[in-house]
Design a protein that fits this description.
The complex is a heterodimer of chains A (about 270) and B (about 950).
Chain A (H helix, E strand, L loop, with lengths): L4 E6 L6 H10 L3 E6 H5 L10 E4 L13 H20 L4 E4 L1 H8 L18 E4 L7 E9 L6 H4 L5 E8 L3 E4 L2 H9 L3 E6 L30 E5 L5 E4 L22 H11 L1
Parallel strand pairs in A: 1-2, 1-3, 3-4, 4-11
Antiparallel strand pairs in A: 5-8, 6-7, 6-9, 9-10, 10-11
Helix pairs in contact in A: 3-4
Chain B lengths: L1 E8 L3 H9 L8 E14 L5 H12 L5 E5 L8 E7 L6 H12 L5 E13 L3 H12 L5 E5 L26 H10 L6 H14 L5 H10 L2 H4 L1 H4 L1 E7 L5 E7 L1 H12 L4 E3 L6 E4 L4 E9 L1 H6 L1 H17 L4 E11 L16 H19 L3 E8 L8 E11 L12 E6 L9 H4 L8 H5 L8 H16 L5 E4 L4 H9 L5 E4 L12 H6 L5 E6 L4 H10 L4 E7 L4 E6 L2 E7 H6 L5 E7 L13 H9 L7 H4 L10 E3 L2 E2 L5 E2 L3 E3 L10 E8 L1 H4 L3 H18 L8 E7 L6 H21 L3 E7 L3 E2 L2 E2 L3 E10 L16 E5 L10 H6 L14 H12 L5 E4 L4 H13 L2 E7 L5 H6 L6 E5 L4 H8 L3 E8 L3 E7 L11 E4 H9 L5
Helix pairs in contact in B: 10-25, 12-13, 13-16, 21-31, 24-25, 24-27, 28-31
The chains are: A alpha/beta (about 270), B alpha+beta (about 950).
Chain lengths: ~270, ~950
């Protein structure tokens, strides 16, 4: 089977594009790192790709809030092309800054029940509750009930990988919005209480319950990532692309590689 | 028209931090602090309400967590303080908002930002002033006031091409000295006289730009006058005996050892922006460590920020892709009482917090993992902190082009030129006093990492495509140093008129001199220029064609038709007279030391010492995972909170082999004041044993030196510097490890108070197989614990001496023949016989063993050999060459055979969650007398400063 071409979007300040490309390649995809300028000029087309990944980093320095300016560019310049990608069921994945971009561009979670087309943003990613950037390994569980078809195949899987962000706290405008995400199956990943303390016994692992550092940033309902109604668009704050090889994991930690996530993504792109 | 928008978050961690910090600066009444961001929007045309609403909802305000208002904000019940950057200071937020506005169709919008703090509580004027001065604003780069500040747009000045002629020919010596001082030239009288004579010879006075160019090029910072000087050293032994020796260039003596050793894997040493060694058969590694001390003293965030930017730029200067960062920081005590703070100096806590935030901001945004470092606290750094920033780079074998050709274009890429960053080189070549902040505020910059990130992407691709013949960075001195160095052999002709400016109104000499972290200069063949322009366009990087390499041997700079500089490169680079200096070193007389009694508390007190205790609060603010190649991290063990010895990094894209790079450092400034020669050897040993502890090969190690000293024109400072350099050269020979690059930062004094002489040794090595890399926390219950090396009877420079104020001044004796033990340990690790390893450094073997127990969250029971000392000394001495290893009992014979006489079995890992330490007079014997017994959870609490959850 030929490797599906995956677009990895680079805006000035993107920095985990290389990490993401390595993970896509290991999962059987063909990554292409393309700067927004090249897309805008039409040198490269979004539609020539079987999937889109927006990687981590600090697009435009996050100077106006994380992901805000790249989100604006996506809406202004590529809104139509991205909606075609989503309509075609091709997977779109945003990691860390890419997740922030998708949320701020309105693609995640997308319109919820009762929303009008121009509804204000209902969820966001904002400053960590400890008020500073933090880098540490965390444990995630892919929600067994997740609506995203391409994530369902790895539902209930544990992934251990690092976070590295200052604005990763997931919050909803109201509790009702969080409830809506839960009941619609739009919660995709949750932080788990498995520190490195208990490497074994995966059945004893539970959601972090808001407790630091298992929930590393104070996210509501331990939400680490969400998907949209179509199930094509997925975003998460932690970096599964930094755990696709055994030696990348801190010594003494359990398996729980991030590679299955990218394998699912690539198969959905085929 | 100008409009004011205020954005207020619903919840506010920044305000909470101000409230938490107020008591630390002596203000009791602050109850709440609300922080808002203010945007002044200036438009030449009308700005409709709809436009402003669109700008706010599309980019400026996240409606889930913040709200906004236009016009003057409503008054609150408290006191409102506004803080804004001074005009001309880098403001990335304003620039990005202007760009976003343009994308939304709001052309020609100018933005200026400010922060408003609403202080609520029972506060008098003095309390408000104290909070403002000590927590909210830094006068060096910011203005503040109670109430509303006007917008800080840079005045719209017209282009200014004035070139001033500086009268020089008839000046007396006294007048020359005044000129040097007034213009921050940092040139001494001999140098001023040589310049005067040159211009007398060519029959005119220099232009402002010529004089400034000479001052930059001849600065200590750029040309290392002290390290090139001839020095007469008078060594006074403790018994009063005097020996006088001549030293023909300190730098030369370091280079000579490298030339002697000349290992096959050495690619480039001392000749370029960074040293280069071979990695695998496809790639090389480049390594450099810089200092950014004076800027960090005045503006900690910006100083450290641009420190990272500067060293990354050095890596780009050898055509390498930066792949990792390191930093070593020396501060005054964080709990320094206010009455011991010097006037005009920021509190060490504020310096530390600003420096850490600055490093995190720049490194994280560049996408570079910050993987290794150290933090030292000492009262000697109160007036002058040290900020060492290091960077590692990866390049294809032999891909770095170094020869510009006649006809090549002189091309600048990256950030625009502003008035910030002028005089960095000369400012760092003088000591500081209370007026420094006023006179050189312009030398302190705020970085712009995203612009440098663009340069990284462009340089990597331009190098691969062979688009340039030479490259260098625009460091201190800006174009003057970059183009001056690149064109040294050929000569150049430059026109400054096309240089892109941050704002108009810069005079030609300012354009020529201003530094930026985010700018590189390349020699580009004319036919390659279109391809480079396309590349820059793709990656959002600005490019300017400045002129050409001429072959005339002259430095010709014009601005339009106005001549700015017309000087021979020969005078610029070879006209500087060599300094002759005198130095003295007086050995201290050994002091008698009485050991305190050994108690359990000793271990807890050592673990809690700021130099030993966990640095997690600092280090977790750095991304140490980006680029997916971190093998051994800063924190290791079961809870990822044990300190690591060194960093192991696998460069992205090199997976064909299991080779990995290892980075470590050694630093022992407490030793330096007693014996700078020993300090060099002990720091070198620390770097090497850290490197070996994680699996690094001791036969593939390259070193960097970084000397931070006081004013070298004072003979005692220079004497200790000469001794330290001698330690380095002897060390390089003894360890058979070449120095491949280095840096000296002298004049680290505040009001005549010199810092402790501080030498950082950084080591870069290879781990042959990353799957065999180990850390200090990998051991399991039942593992044997082994000790490699013997202790010292001397406590001079130890943490124990600092904690118990023993007055020890005799320091541990450096190793005569270190390599055999390190080769043995490396063989054992390579054979997979070692489950965990940790070096004995700060706090001695007691701390080393306890840190392993903390990392593994296991108990340990060891009996430490006395090695002829009393119990206290046996537990706490910091003798070199010692490592604690853990190994399976089943491997006892195999490990014993490899370690031979270098290793002794001293105990085991236990299931009782307790640290038990005894001392035995005889190796392998049972403990004599008192033991230290500490519960593991108490050790964790002491080390982390937090009770165990």
């Amino acid at each position: 089977m030929s490797a599906p071409p995956i677009l990895i979007v680079h805006a000035s300040g993107t920095n985990r594009d290389g990490d993401a490309a390595q993970a896509i390649e290991m999962a059987g995809g063909c990554p292409r790192i393309v700067h927004v300028n090249q897309l805008r000029r039409g040198d490269v087309k979004v539609s020539d790709h079987a999937g889109v990944l927006i990687p981590g980093g600090f697009s435009y320095g996050d100077a106006l809030g994380a992901g805000q300016r790249l989100a604006l560019e996506l809406r202004l310049w590529f809104g139509h092309e991205l909606s075609e990608v989503v309509a075609a069921g091709k997977p779109v994945l945003g990691i860390c800054n890419g997740f922030q971009v998708l949320v701020k561009a309105g693609l995640l979670p997308g319109p919820l029940a009762g929303d009008s087309v121009n509804s204000a943003r209902q969820v966001t990613l904002t400053e960590n509750s400890q008020g500073k950037f933090e880098c540490r390994w965390v444990t995630l569980r892919v929600e067994p009930t997740v609506r995203s078809t391409w994530l369902q195949s790895i539902g209930d899987t544990l992934i251990r990988c690092p976070i590295a962000h200052g604005e990763g706290r997931f919050v909803s405008a109201t509790d009702a919005v969080t409830d809506e995400l839960e009941t619609q199956g739009l919660v995709a990943f949750r932080y788990q209480n498995c520190g490195a303390v208990s490497p074994d016994a995966s059945d004893s692992i539970r959601a972090a319950g808001g407790v630091y550092p298992a929930n590393p940033n104070g996210s509501s309902a331990d939400i680490a990532g969400i998907c949209d109604q179509t199930g094509a668009v997925v975003g998460l704050m932690p970096h599964p692309e930094d755990h696709v090889l055994d030696w990348q994991r801190p010594s003494g930690n359990p398996g729980a590689s991030g590679l299955p996530l990218f394998e699912s993504f690539v198969s959905a792109a085929r | 028209m100008t409009l004011r928008v205020t954005v207020t978050p619903h919840r506010d961690a920044e305000g909470e931090a101000v409230v938490a910090s107020a008591p630390l600066v002596g203000v009791a009444g602050l109850v709440d602090c609300r922080v808002s961001r203010i945007y002044h929007l200036e438009s030449t045309g009308d700005l409709s309400d709809a436009d402003v609403d669109r700008l706010c909802t599309e980019v400026l305000v996240d409606p889930v967590v913040a709200q906004y208002s236009t016009g003057e904000a409503d008054p609150v019940e408290g006191r409102a303080i506004e803080v804004a950057a001074l005009a001309g200071v880098t403001d990335v937020e304003a620039r990005e908002l202007e760009r976003a506005a343009q994308q939304l169709g709001l052309e020609e919008l100018r933005v200026s930002t400010a922060i408003r703090y609403d202080l609520i509580g029972d506060l008098d004027d003095e309390a408000v002033a104290t909070i403002t001065r000590r927590l909210l604003a830094n006068d060096t780069i910011e203005q503040s006031c109670e109430g509303s500040l006007p917008p800080t747009f840079v005045a719209q000045a017209s282009a200014d091409t004035k070139v001033e002629s500086v009268p020089l020919s008839n000046l007396s010596d006294a007048e020359l000295e005044i000129l040097s001082s007034e213009r921050v030239l940092s040139l001494d009288i001999n140098e001023m006289r040589v310049i005067q004579a040159y211009f007398d010879r060519i029959g005119r006075d220099p232009t402002d730009a010529e004089l400034e160019t000479l001052a930059q090029t001849w600065s200590e910072h750029c040309v290392h006058k002290t390290f090139r000087a001839t020095i007469e050293l008078t060594h006074v032994a403790a018994d009063g005996q005097r020996t006088v020796t001549q030293h023909d260039g300190l730098l030369q003596s370091l280079r000579e050892v490298t030339e002697e050793l000349d290992p096959w894997w050495l690619r480039s040493a001392f000749v370029d922006d960074a040293g280069i060694i071979a990695f695998d058969d496809e790639f090389d590694l480049a390594f450099k460590v810089e200092t950014h001390n004076h800027p960090s003293a005045l503006e900690p965030f910006g100083g450290a920020n641009t420190g990272v930017g500067g060293v990354v730029r050095d890596i780009l200067g050898v055509s390498a892709r930066p792949i990792a960062c390191t930093n070593v920081l020396c501060f005054g005590p964080a709990d320094l009482p206010d009455e011991r703070l010097f006037t005009g100096v920021l509190h060490p806590r504020r310096i530390r917090d600003g420096v850490v935030a600055g490093i995190a901001d720049y490194g994280n945004k560049l996408g570079l993992p910050t993987v290794n470092g150290a933090v030292v606290y000492h009262e000697g750094y109160v007036g002058n902190p040290l900020v060492y920033c290091g960077a590692l780079g990866l390049l294809r074998n032999g891909s770095h082009p170094t020869a510009a050709r006649v006809g090549d274009r002189v091309v600048s890429i990256g950030g625009r030129v502003g008035r910030d960053g002028i005089h960095g080189a000369t400012f760092s070549s003088a000591t500081m006093d209370t007026s420094t902040a006023d006179s050189v505020g312009a030398a302190v910059q705020i970085g712009d990492p995203i612009t440098e990130k663009g340069c990284i992407e462009v340089v990597e691709r331009a190098c691969q495509a062979g688009l340039y013949n030479a490259i260098t960075d625009c460091g201190a001195g800006g174009f003057s140093s970059a183009i001056g160095e690149m064109g040294e052999d050929l000569g150049v002709e430059i026109n400054l008129e096309g240089v892109r400016l941050k704002y108009p109104g810069l005079q030609p000499w300012e354009i020529w001199l201003s530094e930026a972290q985010e700018r590189m200069v390349m020699a580009v063949p004319a036919e390659s220029l279109p391809a480079l322009e396309k590349l820059c366009d793709d990656w959002d990087v600005e490019l300017t064609d400045l002129g050409s390499f001429t072959g005339s041997g002259d430095l010709l700079v014009r601005h339009g038709n106005t001549s700015v500089i017309d000087m021979s490169m020969d005078f610029l680079h070879n006209g500087l007279p060599r300094r002759e200096m005198t130095a003295t070193w007086v050995e201290p007389s050994p002091a008698a030391v009485k050991s305190p009694p050994v108690t359990d508390e000793i271990l807890l007190e050592l673990l809690a010492h700021p130099d030993v205790a966990s640095k997690e609060d600092i280090v977790r603010r750095y991304d140490h995972e980006v680029r997916a190649g971190t093998v051994v991290r800063p924190f290791v063990g079961r809870n990822a909170d044990g300190p690591s010895d060194a960093a192991v990094v696998k460069p992205l894209g090199t997976n064909r082999t299991p080779l990995a790079a290892v980075l470590s450092n050694g630093l022992c400034p407490r030793v330096g004041k007693h014996d700078p020669y020993a300090m060099a050897l002990l720091a070198l040993d620390e770097a090497v044993r850290n490197l070996v502890a994680v699996g690094g090969d001791p036969d593939r190690v390259a070193l960097l030196d970084n000397f931070c000293w006081g004013d070298p024109t004072k003979s005692d400072r220079l004497g200790s510097l000469v001794r330290a350099v001698q330690g380095c050269t002897d060390g390089a020979r003894r360890y058979a490890m070449p120095f491949i690059s280095g840096k000296d930062s002298l004049f680290n004094e505040f009001e005549g108070r010199a810092i402790p002489p501080t030498l950082l040794i950084s080591a870069l090595g290879l781990v042959p197989d990353l799957n065999r890399a180990i850390d200090s926390g990998g051991m399991a219950v039942g593992d044997d614990l082994w000790l490699v090396g013997e202790g010292s009877g001397s406590l001079g420079g130890s943490v124990a001496d600092a904690v118990y104020d023993l007055g020890a001044n005799e320091v541990p004796r450096p190793l005569d023949d270190p390599l055999p033990r390190y080769r043995a340990v490396h063989s054992a690790i390579k054979a997979g016989l070692v489950t965990a390893a940790h070096d004995c450094s700060d706090g001695g073997i007691a701390v080393a063993v306890a840190e392993m127990a903390i990392a593994a969250r296991r108990g340990v029971a060891v009996v430490v050999p006395a090695d002829g000392s009393d119990q206290f000394v046996a537990f706490t001495n910091e003798g070199p060459g010692r490592l604690v290893l853990a190994a399976l009992p089943g491997d006892r014979d195999a490990l014993g055979a490899i370690l031979g006489a270098h290793g002794r079995r001293i105990g085991e890992v236990t299931a009782d969650d307790r640290i038990t330490l005894g001392v035995a007079a005889q190796s392998g014997g049972t403990a004599d007398g008192t033991s230290i017994v500490v519960e593991l959870q108490d050790a964790v609490a002491a080390f982390t400063g937090r009770p165990l959850s």
